[in-house]
Amino acid sequence: MDSHKVINEKLIKYLKISVVVIVLVLFLWFLVLDPLFTFHGYENQIEKAAKRYYEINARELPTGTRVKTLSVQKLFDQSYLKQDFYIPFSKKPCSITESWVKVKQVDGEYKYYTYLKCGVISSNVDHKGPEITLNGKEEITINLGAKYQEEGVKTVIDNTDGKMDIKDVEIDSSEVNTDEVGTYKVVYSASDSLNNTSEVVRTVRVVERLNNTVKKSTNGIGIYTGENPNNYIYFSGMLFRIVDIDGDDVRIVAEQDVSNVNYASIDQWLDYYYEHISKKSKKYVVQNKYCDMNATDENVSSLTKCDSFSKNSYVSILSAVDINKAANDDGNWLRPDSISWIRNEKDNKNAYTVRNRFYNTTSRYMAFDQNYNFGVRPLLTIKGSALIEGGNGSKENPYSIGDFTSAKAGDMLNTRSSGEFVSYSGMLWRIIDVDSDKTTKVIANTTLYNNGERVVTHYNTDSKAKVYNPKERGNVGYFINNQAVQYFNTNYFVNKEIEVPIYKDMIRYGKESTVKKYKVKISAPNMYEMFSAFDYNSDTMKSYWLINSSQTQYTKALISDIGVVMYGELYDNAEYGIRPVGYLDKNCSIVRGNGTYQNPYIITK
Q1: Residue whose C-alpha is closest to residue 403's, from 417, 413, 422, 393
Q2: Could you give the domains of the chain?
């Protein structure tokens, strides 16, 4: 019995080993050998197809030491290959755009070199160009007007041909223009004996100090004057315009009103605005003393010298002195189309505004009660030593100083900055900010249209005080959240709890009497949030409702067709447009674009 038991145990052990060996052999066959056999079969088909091609097109064969490259794509396009090639164990095709057959004369006969790339499997043939090592750095910075000195190539080494002569490297520096600020490329290229080519790029940044550029652009005066000078600058993802040189530094102002704010609360609101400057950009902002003087109806139009200044601050607004100094015979670019506050009080109750023109008066300046809400254009001072790295000062190509980098494909939208533009559902949106849950709050850059017709609504409720309420039928808030959403795609927007500020009487920044919360997908803009002011760049911008509400019957919150906040009695049947605000999903990522008005981000989820 014992001998039989020993035999049985040996037999079982032998069978187990045999099973393991069979499994390993099958594993090796199916996962290694069979894919390789399949791959080599593809290679043979490609090489045969290439030979058939040259039998028919013999004149295209290379002569002498030249190498001719025939793409696999071309072999498919001209039907020399008909069967598709797939990566083993998948339905993904091999890369025919990266695959090729090269032909070269060797000892009087043509030799074929086939390279095929199928996922992680590729042909064992030389397909890499030489490795080029440059003298000096791959990124250099030179001053505007300086001469570019080519540092050349240090070594060129090929994995097959070995060390090559650096004279074989072609250098293309034709793009470099040291007379114009910008980023340029010098391209170094070399090819081996099988005509595999590689490139290395040296980046050349031509820069100039910001204050020097301003001096040159203003003929040494340091102040931009006239109707429309080229003084645009992109800063912290937002478009500004350069006002002047202040000492060694440069003052810039927002291109348009950002919000509408009551004058009495401007300083508090400017602190909110400064929070939305990116961290990197804040390193360029310097504290400054800004003109802060009283004026009268008689002298406000002629003030060109300031006799009173504020304490050091990071942000302010323009004064009448700034605006008057910008005028010349051609006009004045600092007079806005909107009604904007300036840093001049008439008395303890009233302060001055400016506009290009006013109705029923020829004056550019008018005083209003400080509790009224008018446009605010923030004014900053940035380091004059900052280097201009690109742009020419035009609106389409503003100056840039390297404080800001656009997103790359694949970046999440919620990593971007206030002020950047996003295209979604055929509409242009602007980032207000990113919420703590990583959703991105955006505002439409125009009012809502449907088939070319403006979407409008009005209050149709019995209550005398028309308080914004997205749950009340007949309310503007209800229409926006429940009906206006049918006019554009809201799939990327999420339902969010919003706060509706309600005021006892006059609507004033930071003076809410109560705040009500509602969960909605789309709402009206908040008058005091970033970019809620009228956008004069948009041809389709019309009047629109605001989310701010008052218990007082005659105090309504909307922006009129001329871009100012409406005050006074509004009839129940008066209809105004919709400018949607919502939160884009935290999973939205960027496909392409650079976040500007001309080239907004395209997103996906």
Answers
A1: 417
A2: 31-122 (no CATH), 131-207 (2.60.40.10), 218-388 (no CATH), 406-604 (no CATH)
